[in-house]
Amino acid sequence: xxxxxxxxxxxxPFGRFNxxxxxxxxxxxxxxxLTGVLAEAPGLDPAxxxxxxxxxxxxxxxxxxxxxxxxxxxAGLPVSVPATTVNRLCGSGLDAAMTxxxxxxxxxxxxxxxxxxxxxxRAPWVLPKSDRPFPAGNVTAVSTTLGWRLVNEAMPAEWTxxxxxxxxxxxxxxxxxxxxxxxxxxxxxxxxxxxxxTGFYDGLVVPVAGLDRDEGIRxxxxxxxxxxxxxxxxxxxxxxxxxASPLSDGxxxxxxxxxxxxxxxxxxxxxxIAGRGAHAVEPPMFGYAPVEAAERALGRAGIGWGDVGAVExxxxxxxxxxxxxxxxxxxxxxxxxxxxxxxxxxxxxASGGRLLGTLAKVLRERRERWGVAAICIGVGQALAVVLExxxxxxxRGMWTRA
Length: 402
Prior knowledge:
Elements: E1 4-11, E2 15-16, H1 26-39, E3 51-55, H2 67-74, E4 83-86, H3 92-106, E5 111-119, E6 125-126, E7 142-143, H4 163-174, H5 178-197, H6 223-227, E8 248-258, H7 262-265, E9 271-280, H8 290-301, E10 308-313, H9 318-328, H10 341-344, H11 351-366, E11 370-377, E12 381-389
Parallel strand pairs: 3-4, 3-5, 10-11
Antiparallel strand pairs: 1-8, 1-9, 2-8, 5-8, 6-7, 9-12, 11-12
Helix pairs in contact: 1-2, 3-11
């Protein structure tokens, strides 16, 4: 079997809900990311892209009808380039990359683009269809932006609590204080702001609609400011708008290929997809599912936590991120060193692509060999990927971590 490599990664800035990207359709966001990542490989004939695998969680509005294929057409790629859209909720973008890597390993293609998009701002309200025409009563419109909607009555009520309530339950289970959550959130904002200020994101982000920087980062965030926020889900709870990821808009794209495709792509690979893992738990405990997903990915890569020099863990909520880091027993300082979703944002289908692109660059800068990207997923799932840094500028005998 062939091996799958990451050659390039690009994303749009992530915009706030009702912010700078509110006027941009999700299919246009997707086309921007797709165009941006292919621009990183100017020698690659777009017709050589064997498939496009795109992540999207909602798919109820302008991102319907296979938004991956829409992105291909809007980006001006040859009509011969096929595309599919995958939906694993928050993990859709990472699932797309995992699917693309399997396509490469199996020999079904030599070059694949993976990625994802979400416009949570433009996610529509929907009306359920009536069992009979012209109902006499009122009909309630349901938001498709986030969370459960149109719930099946056969689903146990304890499984369909809100994402926030699920994380309050997680907080109770692991006794994680609000102070710890707020400290983690402050760290995320400060690291993300510093990463932008020092140019880390310059090569990873392409402007769109006049926005050239993640819109939700608040460099001045402090413990005092977060302490003033009221709990969002329980009167006596600990989860607030400050220690939970915001609703966001954005897209991310990854150029993947086999080792033999390097000449065709015109680039040297950045990282190898070395291991993949998926795991599921009871729906309210979804925030803890990355613990086992990462363990499975590490096992398939043939390494352990002692080998890992960088972790990109999607910060859906501070509490679930802390629970995972505690369970792994790793140094928190290797986690999300360039900020995370609490600051940058979490446009559901795009976050997995952001994680992998950031992780590959962090590994290069820190001269680390192994890294883990992991993401929790609503309704009780998680995914994880292990990357191996294979950049030529790193002397294989001089890794930071032996």
